[in-house]
């Protein structure tokens, strides 16, 4: 039965490929697809992997970047991707041999034996798993999840996903809810290991010593500093402003002058030190790479990029690692998945910040923190 479905699926994919050829040729001239389409659909400069080792597959930039703590544990890996951004990110790993994943009709001839195939999230390619199941030691779906919005759509094609899951040895889910949904779609051997995108290993490079309760305005953008500072009780807190882009340091310093007597960190921190006392109440952190150090001692973080509608927010995981209360605006559309992984983020309008600061703010925490050691045990 499996072989008959395989043959049917292969010829169906071949027909789709033939009818798509004119469109694919047209798209291949666009800069966005100039590298990926020739590689994926015509195997141009895209040979099979040379070494039999651990093979990781991800779609794009975010998924490829999330694999970092896993990939760093191996001497040599293979990585396949779908997009140009994913390819460029994978190339940053010095221990990785990188390819674009070919379209499904090529996989029976392209896939070589590997130790384990590890596929990220929703990259449920039937042919990929069918062939790898027969040529690799193990097939693993990592960081698996099914959102509330997507679940009804998955159920409509339950019969098809059941065929895919027949070829997946281990499914590593983000949460118990995802585990139950995946099992209903036919997944076997499902383990909950958390969301790998929540994995964070901080390195504190300077231990700052605060003088009173500290508010950090983190990764702020144009227009945000003035709007937020207007609504802060500056006399009650020590306030640090950390602009997202260093080219705005001078601009932000001038803005801060309207609200008090700011001090630039660069004027105080003349020599690199493991410890540094923050003696001033109003500070511009005009030095890159300091947010982790500040999060470790902050009493409240106001997360920038979320109070203006053209940024989409910033990653809340780093601050949540230290259980710091986080206040955010409503424009976090680029970080929605990670926001969902953090409990107790306060989403508010700027004018309501004083009311929040006077309330009993709850500490944040990461809900589905990844267990890297557990993941590695399943892979090797």
3D structure, described in words:
By secondary structure, this protein is α/β, with parallel strands linked by helices. The protein folds into 2 domains: 36-192, Rossmann fold; 207-366, Rossmann fold. The protein is 35% helix and 19% strand. The protein is built from 18 helices and 18 strands. It has helices spanning 2-27, 36-42, 61-66, 68-71, 84-90, 107-110, 126-135, 151-156, 158-165, 176-184, 224-229, 249-257, 265-268, 291-295, 317-321, 336-339, 353-357, 372-379; strands at residues 54-57, 77-81, 96-100, 114-120, 136-144, 170-173, 190-192, 207-209, 214-220, 238-243, 263-264, 275-277, 282-284, 300-303, 326-328, 342-343, 346-347, 365-366. It has a 7-stranded parallel beta sheet, sandwiched between helices. Strands 11-13-10-9-14-15-17 form a 7-stranded parallel beta sheet. β9, α11 and β10 (238-243) form a beta-alpha-beta unit. The longest helix has 26 residues, at 2-27. It starts with a helix and ends with a helix.
Can you summarize this structure?
The chain has 380 residues and is of the alpha/beta class. The chain is built from 18 helices and 18 strands. The protein folds into two domains: 36-192, Rossmann fold, CATH 3.40.50.11720; 207-366, Glycogen Phosphorylase B (Rossmann fold, 3-Layer(aba) Sandwich), CATH 3.40.50.2000.
Strand and helix layout:
Elements: H1 2-27, H2 36-42, E1 54-57, H3 61-66, H4 68-71, E2 77-81, H5 84-90, E3 96-100, H6 107-110, E4 114-120, H7 126-135, E5 136-144, H8 151-156, H9 158-165, E6 170-173, H10 176-184, E7 190-192, E8 207-209, E9 214-220, H11 224-229, E10 238-243, H12 249-257, E11 263-264, H13 265-268, E12 275-277, E13 282-284, H14 291-295, E14 300-303, H15 317-321, E15 326-328, H16 336-339, E16 342-343, E17 346-347, H17 353-357, E18 365-366, H18 372-379
Parallel strand pairs: 1-2, 1-4, 2-3, 4-5, 5-6, 6-7, 8-12, 9-10, 9-14, 10-13, 11-13, 14-15, 15-17
Antiparallel strand pairs: 16-18
